[in-house]
Predict the structure.
Amino acid sequence: MDRTLCSALLAAFLLAAPGAADAGCDDLGGEAVQGGLLWGRVPPGSRVTLDGDALPVLPDGWFLAGFGRDAAATASLVVSGPAPCERMLSVSTRDYRIQRVEGVPQRTVTPPPGQLERIRRERELVVAAKARRLEEPEWLKQVVGAFRWPATGPISGVYGSQRVYNGTPGNPHYGVDVAAPTGTPVHAPADGLVTLAEPDLFYSGGTIILDHGYGLSSSFLHLSEVGVAVGDRIPQGGVIGAVGASGRATGPHLDWRMSFLGRRVDPQRLVPPMPKP
């Protein structure tokens, strides 16, 4: 489905009249695809699980489900409560690109022993920031239906691709890269609360994490400037930093990533096509 149409349908779905029928296990929106988000509505007070993992349910019954890069071909959605139901979902698989990147400083491909403790501490900071569960129902309804690109430019890297740095296979790429000159403003793609604002992490350089609520967050990597602080509430479109090439990067770009309850989802599936220059 075209992402613009998908976002429009989602916005209409989420803003439906309070008396609309609950979706339950049948009328689901979004995409059951690796890297995608799915949503629905159940009677308030229901419990929803995906493969046994509890999903956040908003006070009025809306819920989200997310699928990681390597999600299995099927997933079990179970609703318990006033209107129990169960559905086995078919999850579409994707083909991912293999990218070879040369010229990365070898110390960031194979970190020296003296940097391992720093990397461990920084990883703990990121995990803690993403583990927060901010409950802002109106934020979540707004952001899922109306994400905007945080920066515009050529897309130089895509979600799910496997990168080989200087001949050494790295972890899969979990974001979308937007090439832009150093100093280009980076905007909040939706309302959120800043849970991490670090100017110089070993791998990702200048890094910001923006919590959109109920386990959905955005991360912005390789920034040349970090213009916000932990605890700041940022409206959609607010400037949070600037594009750079800090950390493990070979040129200026924005690496935008998203997570939902620990699953890495594809930001590009939640925004309209990149505007033309």
